[in-house]
Write a structure and sequence with these properties.
Residues 89-109 are annotated as: Disordered. By secondary structure, the chain is an all-alpha fold. 36% of the residues lie in helices and 0% in strands. Helix 1 (22-35) packs antiparallel against helix 2 (47-55) and helix 1 (22-35) packs across helix 3.
Length: 109
């Protein structure tokens, strides 16, 4: 399939997760950050500052562990080109409730 024949699909996801061991999440997020290919000399903060910030924010640590490429790994003919995800502590936000249809339909309700 050529670029002219390719289709762009938007995939919207929301997960509710329970964190029983925040320290384990912080450790996993730190490992991911330390192993990431980041040009730290060009960043506004150092690696240690970024780790400290990550360890101070559970939602940011959870979001840092999300990897859309792994979710869809091995699916032929599919490439994850970009994405947006975040995590929030607490109950579901009214901004994003599952089961109501597309975001466009939700906006018109």
């Amino acid at each position: 399939m050529t670029d002219d024949e390719s289709k762009v699909v938007q995939l919207y996801c929301r997960f509710e997760i329970r964190v029983d061991d925040p320290e384990a999440v912080f450790e996993a997020a730190e490992r991911e950050l330390r192993s990431a290919d980041v040009g730290w000399p060009g960043e506004q903060e150092t690696l240690d500052e970024a780790v400290a910030e990550l360890r101070g924010d559970l939602a940011q640590s959870v979001a840092g562990l999300v990897d859309p490429d792994r979710v869809l790994a091995g699916v032929p003919g599919l490439e994850v080109r970009r994405g947006r995800w975040w995590a929030e502590v607490g109950p579901p936000s009214d901004r994003f409730q599952p089961g109501f249809g597309s975001p466009e339909e939700d906006a018109n309700r």
